[in-house]
Amino acid sequence: MPIPSIPTDITCPVCQEKIVASVTTSKRGRHAIGLKCPRDGCDFRGFVNNAAFVESLLERITAASTEVDRSTFNPPRP
Predict the structure, then answer these.
(1) Which tens digits make up the pLDDT trace of 61-72?
(2) Max Cα–Cα distance, the chain, nearest Å
(3) How far is CA 27 from CA 10, 30, 32, 63, 75, in A?
(4) What is the Cα–Cα distance from 45 to 37, expressed in whole angstroms?
(5) Per the CB 3.0–4.6 Å rule, which of 1, 6, 38, 43 could disulfide with 14?
(6) Nearest 5°: phi and psi at 23?
(7) Where are the beta strands (DSSP E) in 1-78?
(8) pTM of the predicted model, to two decimals?
(9) Is pLDDT above 50 for 1?
(10) pLDDT for 50 beyond 70
């Protein structure tokens, strides 16, 4: 399942738009968290490459989306 871009509370230092975060793949094929300005990716672009942090974040996102999917498709019984 692809993970969509996620708006953050961080603002672009150039245009003040909210920076979006998304899961990307580095040049070496490792997962990374990409941060960029939605208006113009040239204004601001950054990456978080710490493998342990990225892995733990992906696990939390996957667990959270699994919980949402379960509650959506399997509502509690009375």
Answers:
(1) 777 766 655 545
(2) 53
(3) 25, 7, 10, 27, 42
(4) 7
(5) 43
(6) -85, 130
(7) 6-11, 18-25, 31-36, 45-48
(8) 0.62
(9) no
(10) yes
